[in-house]
Amino acid sequence: MQSAFELSYPPKIVFGTGKLQMLPSLLPPAAEILLVTGRHAEENGLSAEITKMLSSFRVLTASGIHPEPLLSDVDMLIEIGRKERLTCVVAVGGGSVLDAAKAAAAIIPSEGCCADYFYDKRKIVSKGLFFAALPSTAGTGTEITKNSVLTDPVAKIKKSIRHQTMIPDLALIDPALTLSCPPSLSAASGMDALVQAIESYVSTNANAASRALARAAVASIYHTLPEVCIKPQDIALRSIMAEGSLLSAMAFSQSGLGAIHGLAHPIGALLNVPHGLTCTILLPHLLTWNAPVCHNEYRELAFACTDSPDADFTEAVSKLCRELSVPQGFREFKLSGEHFDFVLKNCRSNSMTTNPRPMADEDIIALLKQLANH
User: What kind of fold does domain 12-178 have according to CATH?
Assistant: First the structure.
């Protein structure tokens, strides 16, 4: 049986330690830049360093993006971009910073506010501003994807704005930018990348190319993440993690994800749990759920991680979660029966459609009961 697929990535991906120094030469000449950075980049001097590096450009800076980016964060960036007639957005930070900046870059040249696009009152129909994404965590992969995950805190809705033209023009991945990432955030973002790679591998839309990328990502992250949490200043380990995260994103951006991400968005928005942690808590439960239809895939991933196809992949990943002190459920976050209808109503995203084993409403309710008790 022949396979057929299409692959879409940013026009330019630059990877390597020290590649940050190339940034000025990779931006459009005479660009007028909105530089969006996270709290850590401000505190450790990275924001100031990049501003100095871009001294030949007109640069305005913005920060203060929430850990789970809000519609208001994007509107703040849109207002600056439109008022100052900027032509380029450069984002340096974790997935939250990159997602907010990506959405702003897409919307600034158009009309309306972020909510208009979030709730489909308006559509993105053309290319936005030039957008350069520089991740300071190894995890979300948003530096090469076409979507931006945002939250409406009033309605407690978390979902994506997505369009093919939102794929960044430049993904500059310098592992040195992750050296200041604390172990707890390294663990959460790294597990997010692992979840994405696993879901990509077993997705009903997976193909030969996405599976090769996902398998390599799973192996790299599985072996390296525990070490990098112990030795956060080891640039070699940081480089492996950054590469694994990139491969994971290259995989899932083509194949889609699964039920973990379908459930993570409403649960995370409702309980205010960080996305990476939400996905990681769900991981062992959904690995068990999908196991009856993923026997071959789990054998292949087990071999990639342990050199033994007979190893129990679900147990190997669950052991990793225990090593990283991941909770077994959402009891400490107060998940209860009164939340179940909300989660059920809001979990049927695109990610659920590519899960290898479909979940009926009663299956989701049974899982939520289990998660509420642990």
Answer: Rossmann fold (3.40.50)
